[in-house]
């Protein structure tokens, strides 16, 4: 069955970096687009980034553009999110979510359980 | 990209129907038939309920339906059940090829 498992979260200081991973199993990551979505404590969902099945299309929310990078290693069936220049407002649970095609408007049938990133001095 | 506008809360009695609105602009909701709805129980993974305005993924109850008129999309839950009590979010595709969520609506079953 499809499973997504995020890892890499933790407590970091402002201005530092972190790399999140999303390990996929039960399907071939190379055929599907993937998204990152986050939820800050007590707040709503915020879309972060998307990458197409082959990595040729990548888009970011304005709030993270230039600081975060989405990438994938299809040989490892793993999605990544590199978080640089972290700010306190980046504190959130980060979820990865699967597209139902290579790059479509039908996404979010499968999600991971999330990994918590806390940015604090 | 500004967040879509949803009511903070909507309530109804068991068996009733409720509708959650999601208002965007002519650039996002009004321009594309690419609105999704997610159900989110706090602490759990979100669940896709509707995609492309009105399409229901396999396994989602037919009590959930979606529609759109102009810049406003709507999610209707008919035959409201206790298990429907949680948070709901809309999301729309944007001209930047990104997505934007609404602020979320808490559904309460009275």
Q: Secondary structure elements and their pairing?
A:
The complex is a heterodimer of chains A (121) and B (110).
Chain A: E1 3-7, E2 10-12, E3 18-25, E4 34-39, E5 45-51, E6 58-60, E7 68-73, E8 78-83, E9 92-99, E10 107-111, E11 115-119
Parallel strand pairs in A: 2-11
Antiparallel strand pairs in A: 1-3, 3-8, 4-5, 4-9, 5-6, 7-8, 9-10, 9-11
Chain B: E1 9-12, E2 18-23, E3 35-40, E4 47-50, E5 64-69, E6 72-77, E7 87-93, E8 99-101, E9 105-109
Protein described:
The complex is a heterodimer of chains A (121) and B (110). Chain A has strands at 3-7, 10-12, 18-25, 34-39, 45-51, 58-60, 68-73, 78-83, 92-99, 107-111, 115-119. Chain A has 121 residues and is mainly beta. The N and C termini of chain A lie far apart (40 Å). The model of chain A has no long low-confidence stretch (mean pLDDT 96). Helix content of chain B is 0%, strand content 43%. Chain B has no helices and nine strands. Chain B has strands at residues 9-12, 18-23, 35-40, 47-50, 64-69, 72-77, 87-93, 99-101, 105-109. In chain B, strands 1, 3, 4, 7, 8 and 9 form a six-stranded mixed β-sheet that branches. Chain B has a three-stranded antiparallel β-sheet with strand order 2-6-5, with no helix packed on it. Chain A binds chain B through residues 35, 37, 44-47, 50, 57, 59-62, 95, 97, 105-109, 111-114, and chain B through 1, 3, 32, 34, 36, 38, 40, 44-48, 51-52, 55, 57, 87, 89, 91, 93, 96-104.
């Amino acid at each position: 069955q499809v499973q997504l498992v995020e890892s890499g979260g933790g407590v970091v200081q402002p201005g530092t970096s972190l790399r999140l991973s999303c390990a996929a199993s039960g399907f071939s990551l190379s055929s599907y687009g993937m998204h990152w979505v986050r939820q800050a404590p007590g707040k709503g969902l915020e879309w972060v980034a998307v990458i197409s099945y082959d990595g040729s299309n990548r888009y970011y929310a304005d709030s993270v553009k230039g600081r975060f990078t989405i990438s994938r290693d299809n040989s490892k069936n793993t999605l990544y999110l590199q978080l640089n220049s972290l700010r306190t407002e980046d504190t959130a649970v980060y979820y990865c979510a699967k597209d139902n095609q290579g790059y479509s408007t039908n996404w979010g049938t499968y999600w991971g359980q999330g990994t918590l990133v806390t940015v604090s001095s | 990209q500004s967040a879509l506008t949803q009511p903070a809360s909507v309530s109804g009695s068991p068996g009733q129907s409720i509708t959650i609105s999601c208002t965007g602009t002519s650039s996002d909701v009004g321009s594309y038939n690419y609105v999704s709805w997610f159900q989110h129980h706090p602490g759990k993974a979100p669940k896709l309920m509707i995609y492309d305005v009105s399409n229901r993924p396999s396994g989602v109850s037919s009590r959930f339906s979606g529609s759109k008129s102009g810049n406003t999309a709507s999610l209707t839950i008919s035959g409201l059940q206790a298990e429907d009590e949680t948070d709901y979010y809309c999301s729309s595709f944007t001209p930047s090829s990104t997505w934007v969520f609404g602020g979320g609506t808490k559904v309460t079953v009275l």
